[in-house]
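Need tokens for this chain, all 212 residues.
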Amino acid sequence: MQQPNAQPMADGVLRETASQTAGPYVHIGLALDIAGLPPREQEVWNRLAGDQARGERIEIVGLVIDGNGDTVRDALLEAWQADASGEYQPRFESDAPFNSFGRTAATVENDGEWQFLTIKPGAVSLANGRQMAPHINLTVFARGINIHLNTRLYFEDESEANAGCPVFNAIESPTRRQTLLARREEREGDAGARYRFDIRLQGEGETVFFDF
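Here are the structure tokens for all 212 residues:
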């Protein structure tokens, strides 16, 4: 029996199948090493802050969890954040002390855990004089997601700033706001703080996602 997508459309284009979603194909172009391809000379990856970056050095780790409670082990994430002064760096330069943009991916080898190495962002000022609490914008790409998901990571130890953040508090439910808080984990020595932030795509404890 011939498959429904076997009949070519105009100009020789095959019909889309249910499996042709954002992942895992994004790894081929955006996570070459994980896809088993030779890396580019200048790669955008998970280290946003170099040794000379100002601010508190932190590690962020987490899982992407589906509606069944299972870990998604081939998700790809992009991060966009301000520097320690609350300013975004619009240009990416591989040798810059800090870049506002980075990528990371979960893999089977690390049991689905993703990681960013960065600095804790400062509060971002708005045009009306108010401030958004320190946060990191995250975009999630994964199997079964036709359109990427946007969320934000806030810090549980920034309770005063979180209480005054207009975006964080636009979420009416206090319980739902909790899904955006990264939990601090202290580490020995001078390795810096680690924050854990698990993203739940569906079901109980589903992470808040934004329409922007």
